[in-house]
Design a protein that fits this description.
By secondary structure, this protein is mainly alpha-helical. The chain has 16 helices and 5 strands. The protein has helices spanning 17-33, 45-49, 56-72, 90-98, 104-108, 111-120, 128-131, 133-143, 156-172, 189-192, 217-225, 246-254, 259-263, 270-279, 284-310, 313-341; strands at residues 4-9, 38-43, 81-84, 148-150, 182-184. The strands form 2 sheets. It has a 3-stranded parallel beta sheet with strand order 1-2-3. The chain is 54% helix and 6% strand. The longest helix is centred in the C-terminal third of the chain and has 29 residues, at 313-341. The protein is elongated and about 80 Å long. Bound molecules: tryptophan (TRP). Tryptophan is lined by residues 6-10, 44, 47, 137, 140-141, 149, 151, 155, 158.
């Protein structure tokens, strides 16, 4: 079986460490492992417009931000195809045909869309484009015949929607043109949906509870030191709770084998540290200082590469331009096959 991998980001803001552990880190690992025939990563600017249609500058500006984040994390344009969604109009074309295969009530049941409708205050009147974006996402995936989609938890309903569309399309038009995608989730629950620094399940700019990949050393430190721990752990001697304690949640995700040796050699591993915290006698400052060291080590090289790349936006847009050309070629092949299956091939 040929593996075709595809994933993307909405350019609505610079990416944070939730994106990093949920998808970016994983996609770079996959890219470097090389166990695939083709790998596509893209910037979902048309999708970002579905709920930012009145703020095009925000989307426009964040295309570069998101590209910088990806390249700084190690995305390698010589191994993958990196492109911009709106520059591949074939995706819009497929979306229109797929709309016929989806019901309004099915879209209403999509839990991610439901959550977003509430979040954006769209309950009164939902823009049709926004409502239908899972269909456009199905087009993104199927245009490249991707069978593996590495994403975080929130994207599961989108991939499920794409699977349904593929099955319906192939059965109605009696073809095997489209390929059913599978999600590839990160290993642990915490990585699939990293909580915010305030313990909120959703990381969001407006809550000021995210650490961004572009954050300076000082910003990271400030955010780590203001993190929620155990509200009942008041004195150092008090026994503390590890479950639901954000510092430990983050340590679970970011601690490496050699982190203790480097930054906290009086403990062997995270289990020992947790035991001490539970028993009492371990202060919050100490665990926060440790988490800060661990995070700084992980984010420093990314930030430095990002600063270098940011000096040369033209280089970044050239990567996207070349990738987009390749992506268009592949997508237009699929559109041809799709139209043929639907008997829309008059001049062939
Ligand atoms: N919805 C994704 C996000 O919010 C972005 C995206 C658009 C995507 N199309 C996709 C991800 C196709 C994976 C596959 O980040």
């Amino acid at each position: 079986m040929k593996n075709i991998i595809l994933t993307g980001d909405r350019p609505t803001g610079p990416l944070h460490i939730g994106h990093y552990v949920g998808s970016l880190r994983n996609r770079v690992l996959i890219q470097n492992k090389g166990d695939y025939d083709k790998m596509y990563v893209f910037i979902a600017d048309s999708q970002a417009l579905t709920d930012n249609f009145n703020n095009p500058k925000k989307v426009r500006d964040n295309v570069l931000e998101v590209a910088l984040d990806n390249l700084a994390c190690g995305l390698d344009p010589s191994k993958i195809t990196y492109f911009i969604q709106s520059e591949v109009p074939e995706l819009t074309e497929l979306t229109f045909y797929y709309m016929n295969l989806v019901t309004v009530s099915r879209l209403h049941r999509n839990p991610t869309v439901k959550e977003e409708i509430k979040l954006r205050g769209f309950e009164e009147s939902i823009p049709a484009g926004f409502f239908a974006y899972p269909v456009s996402q199905s087009a993104d995936i199927t245009a490249f015949k991707a069978n593996i989609v590495p994403v975080g938890d929130d994207q599961l309903p989108m991939v499920e929607q794409a699977r349904e569309i593929v099955r319906r399309f192939n059965s109605i038009y009696n073809t095997d043109v489209l390929v059913e995608p599978n999600v590839l989730l990160p290993e642990t629950e915490n990585e699939r949906r990293l909580v915010g620094t305030d313990g909120n399940a959703k990381m969001s700019k407006s809550l000021d509870n995210c650490i961004y990949l572009k954050d300076s050393e000082e910003e990271i430190k400030r955010k780590v030191f203001s993190m929620y721990t155990d509200p009942n752990h008041i004195k150092v001697e008090d026994p503390g709770q590890v479950e639901g304690n954000i510092v430990f949640t983050y340590l679970d995700v970011f601690c490496k084998e050699d982190s203790f040796e480097k930054y906290l050699p009086e403990y062997k591993n995270l289990d020992e540290l947790k035991d001490h915290y539970r028993r009492g006698g371990l202060g919050d400052m100490k665990i926060k200082r440790f988490l800060n060291d661990v995070l700084q080590e992980e984010l420093r090289p990314i930030r430095e590469r990002r600063e270098e790349l940011a000096k040369n936006p033209e280089y970044v847009f050239n990567i996207l331009k070349e990738g987009t050309l390749k992506a268009r070629k592949k997508a237009s092949e699929t559109v041809k096959e799709v139209k043929k299956a639907m008997m829309l091939d008059y001049f062939e």
